[in-house]
Write a structure and sequence with these properties.
This protein is of the alpha/beta class and 256 residues long. Helices cover 39% and strands 25% of the residues. It has helices at residues 43-50, 72-78, 94-104, 109-122, 138-150, 168-183, 195-198, 218-225, 230-248, and strands spanning 3-14, 17-28, 32-36, 58-63, 66-67, 79-82, 156-160, 187-191, 203-208, 211-216. It binds adenosine-5'-triphosphate (ATP). One of its GO terms (molecular function) is ATP binding.
């Protein structure tokens, strides 16, 4: 199995707070890995370490074969990242936004022309090229942001809650695009709070208070927990962990 992401005992502390605690995970190339967990559990911190935006406190990790501690520039060049608050220029058109990011990624004019055409097609943005990004609805904005993150043909796409607050139809269209990209061999690491989306991932990791509590295929997790669906898996995991923490006497805000 070729892996796109591999980390062992990756840890990030902010002062006394352990945001990510000794995280060990691997994401096979070409798969979709859903990274789930309640608010504040450490998902974004993990993602920022994997993107080379935040230096881990300890542990080891590679992304596309590059070291997260020492090769963050190599990593940044090869991944597509869409943050929770993706930045589009609202007063620029769809095409101008793509042009801007093509400039950031230093695409040649022929690469730019080709990728723009491919991505406008992929995202279903044909006919909207001259529309201001600010006038697009949430679902379109999101697909434009995804297109911007894909301009440089990244091998790995990291998406932090890409569908938060978007209507169900737009979410479905967005996920169809994600699955299509995975079919083309792109690895996707995505965080979501929507269990219907999580259910379609190849792999799932569940993080709570910085600890990875469970990892596997959606069906493995459901079967292992002997419950009916993923939502119940997570409710059960949280319940068990809270009981464990209560027994261990860990107070709110303490080091966990
Ligand atoms: N720069 C920082 N300085 C101090 N604490 C931080 C910093 N970034 C994150 N944290 C803390 O680390 C913990 C994990 O936060 P993180 O943003 O990674 O969670 P999350 O799972 O992505 O949450 P959400 O679903 O709300 O985005 C939280 O307690 C948060 O307050």
């Amino acid at each position: 199995m070729t892996v796109a992401i591999q980390c062992e005992q990756l840890t990030k502390r902010f002062g006394q707070r352990v945001a990510v605690n000794s995280l060990t995970l691997s994401v096979p190339k070409g798969s979709i890995y859903g990274f789930l967990g309640p608010n504040g559990s450490g998902k974004s911190t993990t993602i920022r370490m994997l993107c080379g935006l935040l230096t881990p406190t300890s542990g080891t990790g590679t992304v596309l074969g590059f070291d997260v501690m020492t090769q963050s520039e190599e990593i940044k060049q090869r991944i597509g990242y869409m943050s929770q608050k993706f930045s589009l220029y609202e007063d620029l058109t769809v095409e101008e936004n793509l042009d801007f990011y093509a400039g950031v990624y230093q695409l040649t004019s022929s690469q730019r022309k080709q990728r723009k055409a491919e991505l406008i097609e992929m995202a279903g943005l044909k006919g909207r090229d001259k529309q201001l990004a600010g006038s697009l609805s949430g679902g379109w904005k999101q697909r434009l942001a995804l297109s911007c993150a894909l301009l440089h043909n990244p091998e790995l796409l990291i998406l932090d809650e890409p569908t938060a607050g978007v209507d169900p139809v737009s979410r479905r269209i967005f996920w169809d695009v994600i699955h299509e990209l995975a079919k083309q061999g792109i690895t996707v690491l995505v965080t979501t709070h929507y269990m219907d989306e999580a259910q379609t991932c190849d792999w799932i990791g569940f993080i709570f208070f910085g600890n990875l509590l469970a990892q596997g295929t959606p069906q493995e997790l459901i079967d292992g927990m002997e419950v009916g669906n993923l939502e119940d898996v997570f409710i059960e995991l949280v319940k068990r962990e809270e009981e464990r923490l209560a027994k261990a006497g860990a107070g709110e805000g303490g080091v966990r």
